[in-house]
User: Fold these one by one.
Assistant:
Number 1:
Amino acid sequence: MTLLFTDIRLIDPEAEDGQPPIGWLRVENGVIAATGTGPAPTPPGGATRIDGAGACLAPGIVDLGVKVGEPGERHKESFKTAGRAAAAGGVTTMVTRPDSLTPIDNPETLEFVTRRGQETAPVRIAAMATLTRARAGREMTEIGFLKDAGAVAFSDGDHVLTDHRVLVRCLTYARSLGALVIGHPQDPGLSSGACITSGKFATLRGLPGVPPMAERIGLERDLALVELTGARYHADQVTTAAALPALRRAKATGLDVTAGISIHHLTLNTLDIGDYRTFFKVKPPLRHEEDRLAMVEALREGLIDIVCSMHTPQDEESKRLPFEEAAAGAVGLETLLPAALRLFHSGDLSLQALFRAMALNPARRLGLPGGTLAPGAPADLVLFDPDAPFVLDRFKLHSKSKNTPFDGARLQGRVRGTWVGGARVFG
């Protein structure tokens, strides 16, 4: 099947920042065949022509760090509902976390998750596996077997591995296999029981806070052990200015290290919690505005590599609790793109820079195809109008859970169509 997109603004993450050119793109047999600027060529016979009417065409988002409730918490999110939400948000690849109720710590569970996702989700599924059995931090999983079974990375999620010997053993073994380890930089002692970033606002609200230094301590520890072992490492969320010097030093010395951040930490701050609004309770907690601005600058300069949704569905019962007791997490598959476009409309980042962080960089880091508009790449594409305004209604989200901090927010940017391998899955 041949598709020809015409009158589109080409958002190429590999191009220089600036005004996107008006052009065209041709898809043949699920692969990008050619692209160019100016008037489109005459489409071949039988081709389907799609008039973009000046909308933006970009590579589909590769969302690193999506939690799906299967197996064990299907009432919160299933692969079917998560896949629909992803397609509606322009996400063409969900990189799923292993921190389900039944942890993904063996090849059989990984095979179930992969097969379930392929059968029910309209988008691509790339699954992570745990670093230790049951995420307990005591015994390393069979990293080699899990990698052979398709695991794209290894992580215990927000269960910080505190036994340094076990972590060194895991990093050393992962290094021998070329496997990527994803860490959660946080000192568990300082962050235990905390639900907000410490400061005057936390004191006024009477909530237990965690100092930003907890993130720096956790990251410094991880980077020291990465230097010792030579492993490939990705910090899932770097959210404080205090942690940036350590990250900068690690990259300057040539360590194979990257860092990510959630869209919530890029666009919200701790004051958004207001009068104990639990939809704004995430992990790590929202930071001060000074930290948020520092993260935007770090993303602009390339110190932070990846932006993700950190999609974490929670049911109503777990959020309708006092702030300190409520579950942490927010859904983000459908809000990742319009929330990220806030940074474009504010003049902080170009569209090319946004899609480098949301598509190209995560695809490259995980060794996945896509994330680019180059000929030969899979035709995983999103067509969107970056200027279309709307007010978000959480009950219209495709996710089973509706715990979004953007409920009622005024956003800009609507997805007009999503394609996976040249097949339209939304719009």
Note: The chain has a mean pLDDT of 96.
Number 2:
Amino acid sequence: MGERAGYRRSAGSARGEARRRELLDRVTDDLGVNGLVDFSLRRAARAAGTTHKVLLYHFDGPEDLLTQAVLQLRERRISRSMAAAAEALAGPTLAARVQAIWPILIGEESWVLDQAIGLAMYDPARYAELARNASKQYLPSLFSLCPEHWPDDRKLEVAEMILGTLRGFLVEWRTSGDGPGIQAGFNALVRALDREEAAP
């Protein structure tokens, strides 16, 4: 009963699911370039090369489509971040890994994902999931960056600290543009992570 109607319609066959993924990829690409402002089924249909009726067959309305596209855009960002962190394993400290993901977090589609959080704050009745899902998506990756020998509760605490701090830096980046100030704060985070990793 809890499944969305669009998913029930498109999940009946491998072909239907493949078509749904193809449409979502195209809408996500458009979102990454043009942002959330003026997002509509008409714009999404144009980007996907189809009609709004086809989109409504595969998705449960414009809010559902927008949410799924934001989630996919965020997953792309996380994948690139984790790839950058993996390359940093040559200097295998938590601080080095966090330093490696920061350029990804402030690059390319960061402004669109910041818009998504703003939309969730502005209209939580419709878009609260955009914010709640952000934490659900990022925490496992940040958790995985922590030293393997740490107990899970310590990993979660530090992952939460990193997420909250980086989110604050991203808001500051978007609102003030104070690059030197943000860098100074980021340097302090790196020192804090070095101390945390050195602690017993």
Note: The chain has a mean pLDDT of 86.
Number 3:
Amino acid sequence: MISKHHKLSLLLGVASFAFLLAWLVPTANATPGPGVAVKPNYPATQIDKGGSFFFKTKPGEPQTITIDLANLANYSQTLTIEPTTAYTSKEGSITYKPGKVPYDKTLKYKMRDLITEKKQKVTIPADRTKTVSFTVNPPKKDYKGVILGALYVKTENRNDNVNANNININNKMALVMPVMIKSQDKKVNPKLTVPSIKPDKSGSQTIINTKLANERPTTIKGLEIKDRIYRKGNPKKTLSKNQLYQLSMAPNSNFQTQNDFGKNALLPGTYHLSLRAHDQNGNHWKIEKDFTVSIKDSVIYNNNNWWWIALLIALLLIILLLLYLIYRQKKKQKELLKDQAK
């Protein structure tokens, strides 16, 4: 049985862990479910005892980390623990959910690849605890900044768990225990860039997708973004603007923001994105970038501006007709010159 002292220790650990998730390393929220508590057992190299793993490594020297899993429910539970790599969700927050993730090209080390045990499954009896260990294998050379990931703890469904009305209750839940490592004390400042800007559609609405990337091995927290889009050469007429608050980004990751183009026609030509951003640590970014909308993009992505589409098609037909007439004229001239040479 779990002693009252041990239960209190675990609950305090979970409380500290929740505080850390909100302020130090933003992450996905745990879903409601059965009683499960997760507590880290800090290694000797731990830097900050704030509720998650954050420790210093030596090149190529493995470190073992352990977590205590407590089953606070009145029935046996099976848990799956899987190491993951941190990334930035489409909502603009640091997350650790496993699955196929389009990692940024600047990401050099993935936490999942550095942990020996890829997945562990344990069954814990009611009101008991179990300790699970993982081996972290740091890069063989010193690395800049931090490498961020997590131990993703997920419970299995209990199909036999029914309420008084014989309705199955879904008791599946997930918790994350962040794992962050570094080998140097030198501070690394984040670098925010815009790798690409492309038109798209959301339902029937024309949008502009702007990919934002954090190209450095460090987190961005408290990120605020303001941007506007206008046709190049006409900065006084704003076609779309956007404002986002309280975002966070994982090291070497990216996500997309969307600008609603509203009722404005997406005409072919060159446009300009003017973006301003800053984070809670005083970093500021000013990004100015042109992007081009082709005739094809305009036809595909316009928001029901059918008269513009009809005009574009008409212009395209006129261009094709002119090219055909020029071709015919040149062909006749060649035939005439050939006849004169005989």
Note: The first helix runs from residue 4 to 23.
Number 4:
Amino acid sequence: MPLALVWFRQDLRLDDNPALHEALEQGYAPVPVYVHAPEEESGWAPGGASRAWLHRSLQALDADLRARGSRLLLRNGPTGPALSALLRETGADAIFWNRKYEPATQPRDAALKREWREQGLVAESFNGALLFEPWELATQQGGPYKVFTPFWRNALGRLRVPAPQAVPATLPSVAETFASEDLDALGLAARPAWDSGFWDKWHAGEAGAHEALEVFLDGALHGYRSDRDRPDRVGTSLLSPHLHFGEIAPWRVVGALEQVRTAANAADVDAYLRELGWREFAYHLLHHFPATTTANLNPRFEHFEWAPGDDRQLQAWRHGLTGVPIVDAGMRELWATGYMHNRVRMIVGSWLTKHMRQHWLHGARWFWDTLVDADLANNTLGWQWVAGTGADASPYFRVFNPVTQAQKFDPAATYISRWVPELQALPVAARFAPWLHAELARRLAPSYPRAPMVDLAQGRDAALAAYKRSAPAESR
């Protein structure tokens, strides 16, 4: 049987894997390979939390392959030379992979495909990550979308869910003569193990992804439309890191949702599908506007007066010491679990870019390093959205009040109490804004900051004044 390399990247699963499925369909014996080349990510090499997850996900993938008689080969980059060398070593006639969409990887992959085809090899790539690839949807004028609602309306009208593709119970063996790096040698695992608290919450790998989907369908899906904004409840799917690493296909998630759809839960199903739509929109934007990973999409902000970088304030924000309980709770949850509830992401992002008036890249870089679901498309969209600088963004002049946000979405201060335990002795009403209960806070929460690092009213006023000054002269 002829051999074909199956090049794994952010598609770390066996079911619903188009590249693996096609290799088998064409009669090849797959040789699974992963190439570690973070230096090729053009300034966005995976952060610490992503590397920790990747270590476990690769471990799980190799175990799944071995259970079927195969195994995963690990190689260090650069990618092109590593794969070309393996093609020669194995004598493989073909190479199959699923596409990535980041600005640094698309041109590299296209060049490799041309090179291998010129050598007479079969080289084919597939969509293994998205419901719609970024170039498949366009406005009526033929251009890219910048507003989500018409994008998603178009997508829903064309959405078709493919049938699941299960991997065979057995796979051809991979010869022991084909060398592989040791997983530990890739240096992915955290040293020291600062991520130890992550794994009480997460189960990396394909089995963990399917388990998370089942738990969601049985639980948080019911009431998702309202509870998804409540950090004090288990109201979300927790599928984002599994989707990012490709441990489950998005169309498998859609298919499962449609199977359980009823008249009673239809609004919740539609609300979750809409969140998957935002993921698709993020990839659409990244493909068409690749510079937005570091540059504002909205040119108005090219001359916006961001505050000078303040290391002391940024460190306080990163480590949950701002003096604003809901902000501090979110940042501590992030550090402890590699995750932050989406509503809280918006609150801490607004605090950073509005009250602190720090450039959104400070937040994007920190999230990139600390989130297990750090994804270049979604991270870019999220930060440009909350900062008001991107597509279909929340306007900059919409400044979240973190106190009222906490009172609305964490009404019993349950989330705050969990992550800011020094406030637990205070009455619930005082936990949202302890500086308004100064004497009580001094006695019952002496270790917590006496006041926010930025006065809420003054920070809001300064942000709005800076925004007004940034308006084009003809609109003033």
Note: Residues 130-164+206-288 form a domain with the Serine Threonine Protein Phosphatase 5, Tetratricopeptide repeat fold (CATH 1.25.40.80).
